[in-house]
Amino acid sequence: MGILAEWGYVGLFFASFLAATVVPIGSETLVTAMLLGNYNFWWVIIIATIGNWFGGMSGYFLGYSGRWDWIERILRIKKEKVERFGGRVRRNGVVLALLCWLPAIGDFLAIALGIFKANWRFVAILMFAGKFVRFVLWGYLTVWVWNQVH
Hints:
Layout: H1 2-19, H2 28-36, H3 41-65, H4 68-74, H5 79-92, H6 106-115, H7 120-149
Helix pairs in contact: 1-3, 2-7, 3-6, 3-7, 5-6
């Protein structure tokens, strides 16, 4: 595939990164297209995971910074909403990082974990694991459905 394959991977990285921020795009469509376009399965999964993980960790560190003016203006997340969620973060801790891949609440979880100063090392590991498992399952489901149809 040559140079086009390489640029496809770069695009996947950035799309996956943005999908893990407040930009309302999903990386699943691009992952599916690349898998069906004969890109290497594991490279697609790994690059999508890394991009998505960097995006999630950027939310975590934004929350960790405690810059409410940025959080409220850029992310449109009110301080009161996060503070109400604080009990769950304290109760469940870094395990919530496994769920940062979820649509609609994943960004919020990453930011909340940062705001409540959850251990960044554990957050990073669990967030990566959750996102990796999600992309592996999505990838296998994509390939399986494609093989059933064709």
